[in-house]
Structures are given as structure tokens and as C-alpha cells.
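the two lines:
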Amino acid sequence: MSTAPAIIAVDWGTSSFRLWLMSNDGTVLAEHRSHEGMSEVAERGFETVLESHLKALSIPDSLPVVICGMAGSRQGWVETGYINTPADVTTIGENAVLVPGVARRTIIIPGLAVRSHNEPDVMRGEETQLLGAHLELPGGERYCMPGTHSKWVSMNGAMVTGFETFMTGELFATISARTILVHSTGGEGPVDAQDPAFLTGVRDGWTRPEKTTHHLFSIRAGQLLHGRGPDENRARLSGLLIGAELAGAGVRGGEQIGLVASGALQRLYHAALSECGVQVRDIDADVAVRRGLVDSWHSFSNLNGDLKRA
Amino acid sequence: MSTAPAIIAVDWGTSSFRLWLMSNDGTVLAEHRSHEGMSEVAERGFETVLESHLKALSIPDSLPVVICGMAGSRQGWVETGYINTPADVTTIGENAVLVPGVARRTIIIPGLAVRSHNEPDVMRGEETQLLGAHLELPGGERYCMPGTHSKWVSMNGAMVTGFETFMTGELFATISARTILVHSTGGEGPVDAQDPAFLTGVRDGWTRPEKTTHHLFSIRAGQLLHGRGPDENRARLSGLLIGAELAGAGVRGGEQIGLVASGALQRLYHAALSECGVQVRDIDADVAVRRGLVDSWHSFSNLNGDLKRA
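prediction for all of em together
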């Protein structure tokens, strides 16, 4: 292991592109972010966009690229499919797909799927974060990965025994911008995780999730009848939706949960889980995804020695 | 009582205008509908829009107008406020507000409010439907009034003891058009109330409302993994949201509920309530609102005899 440039790690999602130049031992040597997510690259092509970023950072052609996220979806660069659960999360690298017809060695990591009849589910990108989280803090049995589509994962050792997605982040954005609540929750500032309206919302959502769509309208009524302002209302809306997610995930006081998150979401979910009496183990989402990407490259190249020597 | 033209009854909502020419005994003599809801009349003015409709129907200047709905809101024609619950629903006509400065005698009915600290709520327009429903089928203790914002009302005789609003209709429209589910629930056809996907959704939403935001994402996953089509997905989405509303309203098998609805919504909610073992008493929403408007006019004019003779 050394700190020489060795691997290009990329998280390529629907609306964002994050690239890190990594050493074999996981040191970050350079970083680059842009908004050229999936939806932006359709015209220019994935390889063109990727190489323009690598050229800007003067990264040599010899280094391989490992990618997770929506680049592996049907509408992405190369479709990588899904590994069915139960699945050993340490095998996602071995199952990565080599992108054909490009000069640079480039692999994309597959997603995970729950092929249940009644409650099918998928993840793509979070499996790599999950691998990193598992390597950072082994032994966790439950992980919460908040976001546009929050993922709740159950594990037994390295085995992913199941997971559930909650549309919390997307519902918050859509309900606050596209329903009658736009008049009550205006503004775009981040919600304060210590705002009493947020914490009360969490508790109401967690203890009475069946009332959620009523509690939402009640925010509007609270503006009309009690003159409640947009910051308080946004905080309550966020709390209600996160609280309902915690109820849906079956969160109970006293249990231990690994929270894979960073920034504002980390603060909100840490506060929400603590409000419900959970022992939170924090794992930085950026650290986790980088570690998952680097580990996946090692797994892939160990299995495909000829490629490594090529 | 006679069948001569006597009262102009108007339900003036945010996005629709419905007018009926009524006799004193409640016979419908003429009907007119348009999309000139509240949001359309700001420029032309309420009186101008109303008189243009009345002129088109050759309705004499001497007839009074009774209006319910958003025309009585702060952004409406004249703000009529809210009567606080508990409230006798038969008093809404006595509390109607005479519109000042217009040639034609015109009254607007107030809304109802729950001024609770934790769960405030309001209705405007539905109180008139509720009065009509109470007069059509007295003795009901629970009424469901589905719509963009569904209202669930508890009554003791004519007393409204409380109510709760659920944002079901607006959430269905917004989630199917403005979230990732747009790819899975495309199309705009009405949902079939006998579709097994609708009824299964109702049952899942009713029995496990805390899972709703997970079940929503699962619709997307069902498309990706099982190839489920837009009609089935729309039906399930509708069922899940209505089922969660029923759970939030505390619906139990065997109870009796008055369903104030018409058209496609009546079919969906009747099927959903029946699926949960409820004894449904159907009350047509149009019949109810007309009866509530006519009765409110009689209450108002009995109390204000001088106006009646003016």
C-alpha cells in the first residue's frame, strides 16, 4: 500500500457527479464535483464527460476508474443489473461490469434488489456506501442511509438480509414546493435539527404515522388559524416525514443504528433518531462511499488478474 | 313551497364554479358549471363573473344568491371567517355574511375551524355539504367527504364535535405527476374501483399506514423488477393513499359511515370502505351541497326578515 495515485473513484448519480483520485490505501489525493449527473450527459456521452474531468485534473491514462450509482442503470452508461438479497455486500466489486469499448479500464458496480412480490425494492449507489460503512464499523445490524430515497438496511455480518426504501427526501421537496403547503413552508433554508417544531414533528410522525397526511394539512391550518411562520412549518414538515420513516422502519428506543450520512441530513437524522432513544453510530457518507469504491476495485482486480496486468 | 325560481345556489371553489337555480322546495331548475374558480376571477372581479353567468341564464335580478366555498376566504370575495367547533351545523346560514355594495342580495357561508394547538384544522365549502348530508340522512355520527383535501367529520346530532383533513387527493395528483413515480404511473385515466391492485393497496395502506412512504417507492421497484404497468401502479398508489387515510381516520370494520361523494371518488371510497368492512351510507355530494345552500338561505332570511322584505 502506498499513497501514490492508484484509483479513480466516482459516484455518478442522477443529478450529481463526484470524483476522487485515491491511493491504494484510501488516501484522497484530489477531488472534483459537478452537476453533470445522468440527466446532463445524455448528449455528450459518458466517456467524454468523464475524460474531460480527468484531463482537467491531469490524471494519467493508466489509472482505472470504479463507478457506482445511476451510471449503472438501464438509462445509464452500461446496465449492471442488481444482485438479489440476501447478498454478501463484500461481493459487489467481484460482480462489477467492465465497460466495453473504452480506452481506460472502467468498471461499474451493480445495485441490490429485493425481488419480493409484494414489496420489491432496489438500490443503486447505496450498496457501495453500505460496503464502506460495513468496513468502517463492522458488526452493525441496521443502517439508515438518508436521502432523496432513504434506505434502511438489515445486515447479519456482511450479509444484507433485506432493505426498505422510503421516499422521504423527495416527498419533502415535492410537498413543500408543489402542494398547498407552498404557501405555508416557503423559503429554502435548511431545517434546524434542534428546532422544537422539527423534534415535535419527529415525535408525532413516529408515534402516529397513520396521521401523517392529516398532520400535513394541519400545517396549513396552523398558518391560517395561529399565524405560524414558514421556518416553523418547514421544520415540522421535515420532522413529520422523517418521524413517519422511523415508524415505518420499526425504530425502537434503545436499539443501535448505523447512520450513514453527512452535512445537513446527518444533523437532522441524528437528532431525530436520538429523539426516539436510538443509540446512533455515525458513519460519514463520503468516507463510506470512497472506501466502498476502493475496496470494490481491489475485489474486482484480484478476481481479474489478467486485467490488472494488462 | 313552490317550484318557482327562488334561490341561486353557488359552490365557488378554488378551481371550479357551480351554480344552480333552485325553487324554495329544492327543485333544480337550471344548472351551470365553469372553471372560473377563485384563481380565475381576481382580474374580472367576483360580481362581474357571477352576473355574466346569471345573465346567460336569464335569471331575474330579484333572486338572492347563496354561496359556499373559497369565495369566503381571505383571498376571496368577502372573508366570512370560521365557526369554531364544536358547532351546530344548522347555524351556518344564520352566520352567513351579506356581501356589501352589490345590487343583488348575496350571502356567503362561513367555514368551520378546529382551533386546537397541536392539530388545528379548517374547512370551507364542506360545511355546507355536511349540513345537506345531515338533513338528507339525519343521525349519522361519522361522515367522510373525499376530495383534494378529504374531510372526516364526527357529529352528535347536529353538533360537529370535530373533524380532520387528509391531503389524499392532492398527494395522489402530486406524487403521480411530480416524483419519480411519474415514470411508473403515467397516464391520466380514472382508477377502476374494482381493480385488485387498488383494493390490495387499500388493505396495505389501512393495515400498515406507517409503511406508506416505503410502499410508494416499491411501486417504482415493481416496475423495474416485475415490469408492472402504469394502470396497475396508478391503482395501487390510489389505494395506498386512501387506505392510509382510512387508517388515520381510525376506520374499523362494522362501523357505519356516511360517504358524501359523487362520480369516480364515490366509487373509489365506497369500494375502499367496503373492503375494510364499513357499512357505507351513500349521500350524493351534489344533492348535499344544494340542500345545504338552500337551507342556509332560509335560515339567513328567517333571521333577517327586513332583508327578505327589502
